[in-house]
Design a protein that fits this description.
This protein is of the alpha+beta class and about 950 residues long. The chain has 29 helices and 33 strands. Keywords: Aminoacyl-tRNA synthetase, ATP-binding, Ligase, Nucleotide-binding, Protein biosynthesis. It catalyses: tRNA(Val) + L-valine + ATP = L-valyl-tRNA(Val) + AMP + diphosphate.
Length: about 950
């Protein structure tokens, strides 16, 4: 269709021919109902019928070679429950990105899946087993317990899949995986075998994070630090009463030096580990202990073991901690482990895997560690060796899964050497081959990877990928044994035969499982078919999007393993989002009762419903009694009236309305409900336009050609605002600034389209004037274009409304952008706003037949206001508008009900009829007006001064300079 526009010669005939028909239609519908469109926006009804349609089942069509591709992986949710708001945020961000790429013509692959979540799943199923049957996993055995977990998995995967579909996610469901599928398991085993045979995986004795409740090593990410401010009672699994933490114990160690009675007082928060002391350490420059530096090999008598231990000097010791002297217990402390290794001191193990004292320490053997603590303190007191006990602030390491107090233990485990792998991953970012967004996290990336310690990848669990390692022993030579890695026992036996050079061999598979992060770090490879087939079609991904809290634990490890196995990073960009908190900025937790599920926001939930869900979690064994009570109190405080129904689109729009790159994202249900009202505003606008288009029979045939000369300034203005909004949206999506896009849509629909342009068109559309046809068509264009671009954010309502909005003509909207026209209309709208505010303050309504008088401050202002009097009348809800040039205040009529200024362009007054009550009449506004004029003059003086400043002319943008120039010009006129 040609771009030069002219109205058809037959258009006038068409108008009057349709007038009668349209009036009948108008009287029938009265703008309240359109076939197929409800009177109000009801998200539940709209979304119910669209969810299945909106989900891809895979690409069933042949993709052309030249079609660009976009690949992404959904971070797999754990099968420990339904999706939480953090999942909803990630899924929404990724769905918006994928839908945008699809609109641009990309072939999009977005792979869904779920993670087996070794420790988390085992813990929650154990709780359920205990709650339902009063059984532990050991009571039913490994095989039956694993069957229970697989049942749990099937139920939870179905729930997660439903939750993702409820969010409207267009995932490639035909590519769905589970991290313990056979193909996934084979890839995990193959990766372990290759790394083992390259010497990167080895079995070592080293200090690990240990959960006595789980009897397993745990990851750093599963360690929570509890801030303790002085003596605090903490519940610990396995103990009948709470254990007190937050105390510093000062204990005297006797110095053996020519028989003199001298002591060094040692400060510790953990007296129960004293049984494992191998030395006492002080800072070499601590003056309190400088005299001992001159002595050769100072020794101290251990207060409990009655053995000699050395006094050592090390700069790592903090002289400000307690007395400045600390005990070195390398088997149960990270720092002590490093110091002992440096000074060649052998560690002494104190506790068993269950947290009981070992039999070697006979006096306290087989007793729980925190029971032994009190017994040790009592014995030290009896010997006058307990010098003092002081309140102490500390961070207590806890296992996030079992809520047990963490114990550091020296255990034989499988470790992956990460130093070189980490440097390789660091190099990818430093070279620019891999981009982190936002870039501020590059510092975090460097901090983790430039000195990356070995990764403990084994866990003492039943649920997970069993480590494909076998211990082979030569039966004829007892000391002759070797570890081999293999896919099965037969392959392991063949490898062992070659290494041991014997046929009399027995092999045993390691019972431990791999850290869940190991299998998830392989996902870009394993879900692409590695190592069994060519992966170029699916690897690498274009983008990985996830929370910044797992940048190292997942993202960095994916890069490490991707590089070692393919020589290529598994993705080109890393987009990190913030952590979702409640409206007050608090992390969501059971104890606060502020956890919100996406489904509760989408469907709404009464306070009773929220309480029932908490009780159900308690009944299932997920929450204990204390957590349940705290949650019930918290939810009553947070949501006394429950959570209102908001719908999926409002939830998605709200999540994207925040700067996703911020460290924390505060989610407020009230804001979500407000966005539901915003969508209802769009719904009502669409009903009006659809009814008008139907009545006027708007279609492409209405225009033969389309020419800008037929359009009014307001028509061109709304098209300019549309062009600006669409450009802002596209740029925001490309830069992952989704909140700029949502803000742009809100301004366009609320301020520009609904509150302004649509209001100015109603009378012309009602009268079926030629302008009405043009304006109705432009309304259709604006709605269709904006809805199409907003569809990635709010797919359900947009898809529904687009069915009812005709496309009368195809336009290149971008060419209508006009900044100077927008500035002109903005000035008019500012005048209208001032008039509405004055009417509101003086309680003037239509029944008072308001008569508006505008007084232009200059000829230029007069010429600018003149073409817009009709729109000003409509937007200010006044009956008549009169425009004059103001030369002095004496021109202002005495009969004005109220009078004010509207910025640098004009002043205005309003005349009302006799109905306007005498007591409501405004006090003469002369003084108020003079005050406003004085302020205006000062403002204009400030603009003039700034305009004349050379520094401002150099640094300010052209847009800002133009604004200043216009205001100064009006003042001069």
């Amino acid at each position: 269709m040609q771009n030069n526009l002219r109205l058809s010669g037959n258009l006038d005939k068409i108008f009057y021919k349709k007038l009668k028909k349209f009036l009948v239609f108008f009287n029938r519908c009265k703008w309240k109902s359109v076939a197929g469109l409800a009177e109000a926006y009801k998200p539940k009804e709209i979304e119910a019928g669209k969810r299945e349609k909106l989900h891809e089942t895979g690409r069933s069509f042949q993709i052309k070679r030249e079609t660009p591709t976009f690949r992404m992986l959904l971070p797999p949710p754990n099968i420990t429950g339904n999706l939480h708001l953090g999942h909803a945020l990630m899924a929404t961000i990724q769905d918006v990105i994928c839908r945008h790429k699809k609109q641009l013509g990309y072939d999009v692959e977005w792979i869904p899946g779920t993670d087996h979540a070794g420790i988390a799943t085992q813990v929650v199923v154990e709780k359920k087993l205990c709650k339902d049957y009063s059984l532990a996993r050991q009571d039913i055995g490994r095989e039956k317990f694993l069957r229970e977990i697989w049942k749990w998995k099937d139920e939870k995967v179905n729930n997660i899949r439903k939750d993702l579909k409820k969010l409207g996610c267009m995932l490639s469901w035909n590519r769905e995986y589970f991290t313990m599928d056979k193909t996934q398991a084979y890839a995990v085993n193959e990766a372990f075998i290759r790394l083992f045979e390259q010497g990167l995986i080895s079995r070592q004795e080293s200090l690990v994070n240990w959960s006595c409740a789980l009897e397993s090593a745990i990851s750093d990410i599963e360690v929570e630090l509890l801030d303790v401010k002085g003596p605090t009672q903490v519940p610990v699994p396995g103990y009948d009463k709470n254990i007190t933490f937050g105390r510093m114990f000062n204990i005297k160690y006797k110095i053996l030096d020519n028989g003199t009675e001298d002591y060094i007082t040692v400060s510790t928060t953990r007296p129960e580990t004293m049984l494992g002391d191998v030395a006492v350490a002080v800072h070499p420059f601590d003056k309190r202990y400088s005299k001992y530096r001159e002595s050769d090999g100072v020794c101290l008598m251990h207060p409990l073991r009655q053995q000699l231990i050395p006094l050592i000097f090390d700069a790592v010791v903090d002289p400000h901690f307690g007395t400045g002297a600390v005990k070195i217990t390398p088997a149960h402390d990270r720092d002590d482990f490093k110091i002992a290794k440096k000074h060649e001191l052998n560690p002494i193990q104190v506790f068993s895997t269950k947290g009981f004292v070992l039999e070697d320490h006979k006096e306290f053997a087989l007793k729980p560690r925190f029971v032994v603590r009190e017994e040790i303190l009592q014995k030290l007191g009896e010997q006058n060796l307990l010098d003092s006990v002081n309140d102490h602030s500390m961070q207590l390491p806890m296992c996030s899964r079992s809520k047990d107090v963490l114990e550091y233990m020296i255990k034989e485990q499988w470790f992956l050497q990460c130093q070189q792998l980490g440097l390789n991953a660091l190099s990818e970012v430093q070279s620019g081959r891999l981009q982190i967004i936002p870039s501020k996290y590059e510092v975090e990336w460097q901090r983790w990877l430039e000195d990356c310690h070995d990764w403990c990848i084994s866990r003492q669990l039943w649920w997970g990928h069993q480590i494909p390692a076998y211990k082979a022993r030569c039966n004829s030579e007892k000391d002759k044994e070797v570890w081999v890695a293999a896919h099965d026992e037969q392959e392991a036996l063949m490898k062992a035969l070659e290494l041991l050079k014997s046929v009399d061999i027995s092999i045993t598979r390691d019972q431990d499982v791999l850290d869940t992060w190991f299998s998830s770090a392989l996902l870009p490879l394993s879900m692409s078919g590695w190592p069994n087939k060519e992966i170029k079609r699916h690897y690498p991904l274009d983008l990985i999007e996830t929370g910044h809290d797992i940048l190292f634990f997942w993202v960095a490890r994916m890069v490490m393993l991707g590089l070692i196995f393919t020589g290529q990073t598994p993705f080109k960009k890393i987009l990190l989002n913030g952590i979702v908190c409640d409206a007050h900025g608090r992390k969501m937790s059971k104890s606060l009762g502020n956890i919100i599920a996406p489904q509760q926001v989408i469907e709404g939930a009464s306070l009773q419903d929220l309480q029932k869900e908490i009780q159900a979690s308690h009944k299932a064994g997920i929450l204990n009694e204390l957590e349940t009570q705290k949650s019930l109190i918290g939810v009553h405080r947070m949501f006394p009236s429950g959570i209102p129904e908001c719908g999926t689109d409002a939830l998605r729009f709200t999540l994207c309305s925040h700067n996703i790159k911020n460290h924390f994202i505060n989610f407020d249900v009230t804001e979500c409900y407000t966005n539901k009202k915003f969508l209802n505003k769009i719904w009502q606008a669409a009903r009006f336009v659809a009814a008008a288009a139907e009545g006027l029979e708007i279609s492409a045939k209405v225009f033969e050609d389309f020419n800008e000369s037929s359009l009014s300034k307001w028509d061109l203005w709304i098209l300019s605002r549309l062009a600006h909004t669409l450009q802002q949206c596209r740029e925001s999506l490309e830069n992952f600034n989704l909140h700029f896009a949502t803000a742009g849509f809100k301004k366009f629909f609320y301020n520009d389209l609904c509150d302004v342009y649509l209001e100015t068109t109603k009378n012309n559309i009602k009268l079926e004037s030629p302008e009405g046809y043009v304006q109705c068509s432009i309304l259709c264009i604006c709605l269709r274009s904006a809805l199409q671009d907003m569809q990635p954010f709010t797919p359900f309502i947009c898809e529904e409304l687009l069915k009812y909005i005709p496309q009368p003509i195809t336009l290149d909207v971008n060419k209508f952008y006009n900044s100077s026209l927008e500035a002109e209309i903005d000035a008019i709208l500012e005048v209208c706003e001032q008039i509405r505010q004055l009417k509101s303050r003086n309680q003037i309504s239509r029944k008072h037949e308001p008569y508006l008088r505008l007084y232009a401050h200059s000829l230029k202002a007069l010429s600018m206001l003149q073409p817009h009097l009709g729109e000003i009348k409509t937007l200010t809800l006044t009956n008549t508008v009169e425009l004059r040039l103001l030369q002095n205040n004496s021109q202002i009529h005495k009969d004005l009900t109220c009078y004010s200024t509207a910025g640098y362009m004009c002043s205005f007054g309003i005349v009302t009829n006799e109905l306007y009550a005498e007591e409501k009449k405004a006090v003469p506004q002369t003084n108020v007006n003079n005050h406003k004029l004085s302020k205006l003059e000062k403002e204009l003086e400030r603009y003039s001064t700034r305009w004349e400043d050379k520094g401002f002319r150099k640094s300010a943008s052209s847009h800002v300079q133009q604004k200043h120039f216009e205001k100064v010009s009006f003042n001069s006129s």
